[in-house]
Amino acid sequence: MDNALVIGGTRFIGRHLVEELLEHEYDVTIFNRGSHDNPFETDDRVSHIEGDRTNDSALEAAATTVDPDAVFDCVAYHPKDVQAATRIFDDCEAYVYVSSGAAYGREELPKREGETPLKSCTTEQAIDDSSDTYGNRKAEGDRAVFAAAEKGRNAMSVRPCIVYGPHDYTERLDWWIDRVNRFDRVLVPGDGTNIWHRAYVEDVASALRIVAERGEPGEAYNVGDRRLTTLEELVDVIAAQLETDVEIVHAGQHELEAGGIDLEDYLLYRAYPHILSTAKLTALGWESTPLEEAMERAVDSHLESDRDGSEHGPDREAEERVLGILETL
Residue 318 and residue 269: Cα distance in Å, rounded? Predict the structure, then answer.
């Protein structure tokens, strides 16, 4: 297996996947609309085909042009995308769909492939574009993978939890790095012990490659950091990488209301723990990057960028009102 087609390939997970494939001497072609800057534009090892993945004719043309051994689908957001791709690339050695831990439909610890049920997906949800139906659509995409495998196609699924690292356009971790970097006191929602499993982006990229090379058709594989941290521990790890000290201040819903803030406004906060079992992926020979090493790269990338996550979490003025009230208690 040495010829790969990456559907997407320029922004976050796809970008790191291309780099992973190049490191393992794949010939790589990326297929996308060209609506984002192409970091591989001057790299003669990477070919680019411009096209809309929702256009079946464009995908069919790419399949004919490239004839890939492995297809990595990083931007399949609707079940019909997966159904079309598994049909068009029915004779490739591996089709790997980027699903999500959000596809799971029951809260349990940990969530396991083949045991924890997936979310349902109605006809209306399958064509929706809102964040509310994201998990439903990803789950239905998984079911499309399983159906394709039953027809003899080499289709597999990888389910990351919250992904972080360099080039993360969601800025979820950047919000917290910015807080730790700029302020001596950091407000942490709740008691700081909540856990939302995270996955370092380079580990997600290696998982995709390993599943393509060693995975079984019709199977799904969770991916997430080997070492889990609470939200408070995450702040401590960030502070260590920034070589700074911060005071962590906890605030429950009642205190946060003084600033017009809700617990759920905080990025990476989740009331019920979200933990994925990664034993199945580990059995294929996958390994997780040590947390401190992953966070060092994430922090360095943040400092070199203009990302601060300010559009996504509570503003500091609102937090200052909460901190002021807590000082009087």
Answer: 17
d(CA 242, CA 25) in angstroms, rounded, equals 35
- pLDDT tens series, the chain, 329 aa: 899 999 999 999 999 999 999 999 999 999 999 999 999 999 999 999 999 999 999 999 999 999 999 999 999 999 999 999 999 999 999 999 999 999 999 999 999 999 999 999 999 999 999 999 999 999 999 999 999 999 999 999 999 999 999 999 999 999 999 999 999 999 999 999 999 999 999 999 999 999 999 999 999 999 999 999 999 999 999 999 999 999 999 999 999 999 999 999 999 999 999 999 999 999 999 999 999 999 999 999 999 999 999 999 999 999 999 999 898 86
DSSP state at residue 218: T
Q: Reduced to 3 DSSP states, what percent helix, strand and coil does the chain have, rounded to the nearest 5?
A: 40, 20, 40
pTM recorded for the entire structure: 0.97
How many Cβ atoms from other residues are within 10 Å of residue 149's Cβ?
19
- β-pair partners for 98: 158
Q: For residue 175, what are the contacts with CB-CB under 8 A and spacing of at least 6? A: 267, 308, 309, 310, 312, 313
Token readout for 300 is 């360095």
Q: Please tell me the distance from the alpha carbon of residue 194 to that of residue 164, in angstroms, as a whole number.
A: 18
